[in-house]
């Protein structure tokens, strides 16, 4: 793929600076991201309904509680951020009247003092006005020790958060933190007058009937089937253009493709069209089908607190026992790119010099032999009373991943390792089972970066494991003091060329430690009816519906 068409191409110094990036993109647009000139020039006509297919079921509707990508499909529909990020990586004003920059006085030159000016024409879905009190409430909530926050990184550095007026809020940072603009761009604002009135935010009624400022209002949820949203006719931004938005849950990817082919689904969302259907799909009449490079990395992930995975020789041996290229060629039709890193290969921060994976069963056996893992009478290796036996889980109904599991299961058996397949419905799989590290191993696709920013504190910092009481997504319970120190250092550097060395080193450590085995970087097959306009990929967000407000029928 060429850099010309790649949103991860090397940024300019101004774009890549955590704070100064805002200066390059702090334009105040009258509409929301994804607004095309042709769409903006037309009068707003709200008509019809759109059905979006998801293979995983959204279950977390409070955007500040631990959640996965599919939940954000709903969050983008119901809520707004202060500013968002477009496909080119530029920040665009949303609830903020303008993107804070050094040039406009929103950020001090040292990056410590912040001032956000807000729109005065925004209302919550219940008609109450949106104000700076809601922004303060949201940031305070994220660091509330009594709340099950999904992210404290960055917000925990905010001090002296002050509501100056209904349309202005100020704060200072305890220290400069380069990733904070990208974090704010993915922080949805929630209503103080509703959620703030709840005694326990973790069990609030709001969590099952969310109220936002976004283009669509919550209507109903039929668990296991669909979520229905209705147009917010008073939306301040561009759109919405459809009366009803339906998120349909179809766990079997073959069934979801069939429903797209027959027209029951208008847009195929997460996890899109599987590669085995690509040749047929691209020839379907009336359908727009494209291969889109993604920032998601597929991996075989370990729970590092399981005794059999504490030995690095085990993790390395299992990696040697996986024939990545054959899996990609045979099951994914050669579309994804094999990788050794969690960073997308087009990123400025990608480390191309990591050791290349080598499929070698004999080397894997020798590693285990040398480490003292000996086969027992049943053929399964063991050491100090611990057997090399574990379960592997992923989303039930993902037929390609299930084939990958079967392939790995046989390879590991030849190695003297017993892997039992134990797949679960998405709502169970990606709930507490995943977030609270109740698994042994998992096959999972993750977007590790926040937009194009390389910070991965939520994933790799020792105190970011929910199973250990932390806020974050360190579900493999990885702990490494050197990585902790490097993450701290990287967050304090604003020049990308200087910052890059830190993240190259982190990738080197992760490749050596292997808390997860990187398999490939996604190349996804996306599809929608040709009559549906403005469905635009954006690798700087975690879900397709980042600009769903502007989707419309031609």
Automatic annotation (TrEMBL):
One Pfam entry name: SBP_bac_5
Domain Solute-binding protein family residue range list: 100-463
Alphabetically ordered keywords of this record: Signal
Compartments it resides in: Periplasm
Keyword presence, Methyltransferase: no
An annotated GO cellular component: outer membrane-bounded periplasmic space
Molecular function via GO: peptide transmembrane transporter activity
Principal place of residence: periplasm
Example GO biological process: peptide transport
Protein family per UniProt: Belongs to the bacterial solute-binding protein 5 family.
Protein name listed in UniProt: Peptide ABC transporter substrate-binding protein
Source organism of this protein record: Rhizobium daejeonense
């Amino acid at each position: 793929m060429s850099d010309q068409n790649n949103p991860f191409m090397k940024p300019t110094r101004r774009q890549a600076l955590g704070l100064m990036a805002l200066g390059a993109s702090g334009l105040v647009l009258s509409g929301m991201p994804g607004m095309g000139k042709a769409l903006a020039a037309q009068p707003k006509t709200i008509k019809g309904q759109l059905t979006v297919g998801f293979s995983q079921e959204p279950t977390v509707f409070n955007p500040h509680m631990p959640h996965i990508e599919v939940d954000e499909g709903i969050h983008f529909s119901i809520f707004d951020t202060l500013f968002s990020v477009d496909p080119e990586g530029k920040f665009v004003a949303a609830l903020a009247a303008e993107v804070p920059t050094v040039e406009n006085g929103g950020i001090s030159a040292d990056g410590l003092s912040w001032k956000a000016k807000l729109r005065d024409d925004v209302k919550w879905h219940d008609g109450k006005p949106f104000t700076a009190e809601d922004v303060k409430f949201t940031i305070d909530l994220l660091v509330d020790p009594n709340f099950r926050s999904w992210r404290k990184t960055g917000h925990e550095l905010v001090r002296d958060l002050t509501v100056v007026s209904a349309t202005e809020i100020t704060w200072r940072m305890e220290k400069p933190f380069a990733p904070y603009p990208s974090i704010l761009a993915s922080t949805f604002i929630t209503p103080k007058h509703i959620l703030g009135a709840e005694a326990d935010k973790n069990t609030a009624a709001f969590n099952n009937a969310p109220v936002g400022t976004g283009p669509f209002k919550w209507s109903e949820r039929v668990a296991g089937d669909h979520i229905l949203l209705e147009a917010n006719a008073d939306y301040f931004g561009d759109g919405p253009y459809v009366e009803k938005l339906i998120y349909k849950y179809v766990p079997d990817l073959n069934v979801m493709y069939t429903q797209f082919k027959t027209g029951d689904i208008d847009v195929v969302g997460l996890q899109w069209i599987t590669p085995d259907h690509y040749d047929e799909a691209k020839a379907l009449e009336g359908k727009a089908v494209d291969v889109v490079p993604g920032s998601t990395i597929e991996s075989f992930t370990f729970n590092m607190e399981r005794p059999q995975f504490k030995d690095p020789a085990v993790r390395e041996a299992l990696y040697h026992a996986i024939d990545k290229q054959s899996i990609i060629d045979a099951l994914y039709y050669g579309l994804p790119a094999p990788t050794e890193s969690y960073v997308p290969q087009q990123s400025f921060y990608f480390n191309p010099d990591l050791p290349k994976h080598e499929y070698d069963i004999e080397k894997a056996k020798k590693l285990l032999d040398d480490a003292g893992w000996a086969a027992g009478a049943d053929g399964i290796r063991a050491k100090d009373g611990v057997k090399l036996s574990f379960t592997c889980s992923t989303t039930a109904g993902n037929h390609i991943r299930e084939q990958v599991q079967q392939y790995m299961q046989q390879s590991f058996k030849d190695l003297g390792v017993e892997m039992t397949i134990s797949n679960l419905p998405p709502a169970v799989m990606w709930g507490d089972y995943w977030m609270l590290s109740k698994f042994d191993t998992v096959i999972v696709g993750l977007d590790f970066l926040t937009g194009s920013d390389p910070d991965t504190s939520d994933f790799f910092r020792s105190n970011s494991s929910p199973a250990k009481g932390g806020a974050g997504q360190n579900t493999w319970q990885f702990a490494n003091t050197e990585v902790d120190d490097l993450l701290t250092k990287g967050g304090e550097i604003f020049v990308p060329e200087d910052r890059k060395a830190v993240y190259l080193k982190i990738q080197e450590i992760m490749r050596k430690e292997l808390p997860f085995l990187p398999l490939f970087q996604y190349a996804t097959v996306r599809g929608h009816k040709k009559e549906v306009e403005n469905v635009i990929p954006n690798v700087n967000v975690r879900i397709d519906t980042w600009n769903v407000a502007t989707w419309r029928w031609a």
